[in-house]
Amino acid sequence: MLKGCLFENGSGVKLLGELSDLNALHCTVRKITSVMVDYGLTDTAASTLLVDFLEKIETAYSGKGLTEQAVFQHTVFTYYGFSCTWMELLMINSLLRSLADYTATDERDDVNMLLLEYLIRKAVSQLDKEELSGIHHYIGKPFVCLNIRHFIAQFNFNNADFEDSADRDSLNRIQEYLSAYFEGSKQHN
């Protein structure tokens, strides 16, 4: 099973799992990313976000990412992983939720998306900031989009804009940004 934790400075999330866990997550993300390929929307910010996430997973299960070992009942287990920001993970998961309606998903895909939601909740709760209370209700929700082609074409996310997300102003900016996607701004539909 995938596990995750927040880095000490609150800037990122470390995701770790066994090779089979990472492979399952990769299959889910790849399957859902194919929606953008089918619509001919591979040169978009949404596609870039998911392809970059796929590359992080591939780096992890190739052994070139983070590694940790744990001992359980005298057996050593090696976990492979990668890091990303909690905001990036939130956007990826919501994008997966939104696009999943346009492809055939199975129980494993649903479990992977629920697991990502759990990891986001866990990471955000570790920040223990009162300002994050408004962000919690966006976790696990798909974006509001009336026309999927238009939504994908107009989707805009640059993780660098949110990497300094520890102070109050940054968290308020994140809240405003998320409300546009989750509460149905006309510019994103």
Can you write the helix and strand succession as a string?
EEHHEEHHHHH
The percent range for helix content is: 40-55%
Q: What topology, given as strand order, has the largest sheet?
A: 1-2-4-3
Rounded radius of gyration (Å) = 16 Å
The oligomeric status of these chains comes to single chain
Number of strands: 4
Strand coverage percent: 5-15%
User: How far do the termini sit from each other?
Assistant: 35 Å
Spans with pLDDT under 50 lasting ≥5 residues? 185-189
Tally of DSSP helical segments: 7
The major beta sheet can be summarized as: 4 strands, antiparallel
| Shape annotation | globular
Mean pLDDT: 84
Q: Structural class per helix/strand content?
A: alpha+beta
Structural summary, described in words:
Mean pLDDT is 84; it is low at 185-189. This protein has helices at residues 19-38, 45-61, 86-100, 107-127, 133-136, 148-154, 168-182; strands at 3-6, 13-17, 66-72, 75-84. The protein is globular and about 55 Å long. It is an alpha+beta fold and 189 residues long. The protein contains seven helices and four strands; from the N terminus they run ββααββααααα. Strands 1-2-4-3 form a four-stranded antiparallel beta sheet. α1 (19-38) packs antiparallel against α2, α1 packs across α4 (107-127) and α3 (86-100) packs antiparallel against α4. β3 and β4 form a beta hairpin. It starts with a strand and ends in a 7-residue tail after the last helix. It is 52% helix and 14% strand.
